[in-house]
User: What shape does this take?
Amino acid sequence: MKLVVTGASGFLGREVCLAALRRGHEVLALGGARAPTIPGVTQARAFDLCSEVALEALLLEEFPHAVVHCAALPTIETCLADPAQAQRLNTEVPKKLAQLCFHLGAKLVHLSTDTVFDGVAGNYQPTDQPAPLNLYGETKAAAEVEVLRYGREHAAVLRTSPISGNSVGGDRGLHERLFAAWKDGKAATLFTDEIRQPVEVSNLADVTIEICERTVLSGLFHWAGTEALSRHELGVRIARHFGLDADALVRPISRAEVPSAAARPRDLSLRLHPLAGKLRTPAQSFEEQLAQLRVPRGCENWYEKVTGRKVVRRLEKGIDY
Ligand SMILES: NC(=O)c1ccc[n+]([C@@H]2O[C@H](COP(=O)([O-])OP(=O)(O)OC[C@H]3O[C@@H](n4cnc5c(N)ncnc54)[C@H](OP(=O)(O)O)[C@@H]3O)[C@@H](O)[C@H]2O)c1
Assistant: This one.
């Protein structure tokens, strides 16, 4: 199958390209400002998806069987910093992609987010009504409607949760952000009553490709790990996994103690049914996700000093872990 992967210079997109190659597909990897460099990927370029004319020309020329759309402004902060670009990239681009994929008869897998929900109820099903609390969630929720409007038969919207795993820059995965604070001598203060359900990046990438391969899978789906945990529990389990002193490095706080927390979704846990029953790729426990984590680049000296453990690096998937 010939696949176009957008956001391939990003955290998830890179892993999607690697998963596609692993599963025997041909990949065109599109970055935004940066041309992706991914081991084994021979077709890669920087490409501004907001140029509709160029996007149309590219897809008509490439005529892919499927597009996995990972490019986005994927945080509340980046969306607030440039609301017009958030609207363009997070809503208009997926709409255009869905129209083009419909025209070509190509499958579209569009990445969405748990942040489309308000977090009041938790344990969300795909059929639950989005009620975003912030611009990021609003632009992504609007995209879901557009993608499914044009792609009811051809498109899959995949809502997912905070992504764990090792990133090339050592700064994108859940544990990598904690290590950055710890290395600077700061404990992480984490909510005991804010719930998230992390997913490991390569597991999620496999799922996106499996959905491309399974033509019958279209519509709105959820994918994450199997465990919904508080942010505090996540921090504690990450610290313990690395043999670090969780009591010293992870401080508990409740949402009631932080007035601004009311504007954040409380519980964004997701129900994986019905997708989990339809895929060969299994959902992973948090323990299975932890087993794949490495000490982030730049944190080796600090880590060796506080634990007395030696960090041994090895080259894996183009990253010198
Ligand atoms: N990360 C998470 O925890 C998380 C959680 C839930 C859902 N998601 C969803 O998962 C998807 C992937 O997220 P991610 O964390 O992998 O994002 P990321 O690492 O920030 O990557 C974003 C990608 O978008 C590209 N991009 C930005 N502007 C572009 C433009 N104008 N034209 C073309 N490409 C452009 C970037 O390219 P350059 O850097 O080269 O400019 C980069 O490759 C997103 O849809 C996000 O909403 C992520």
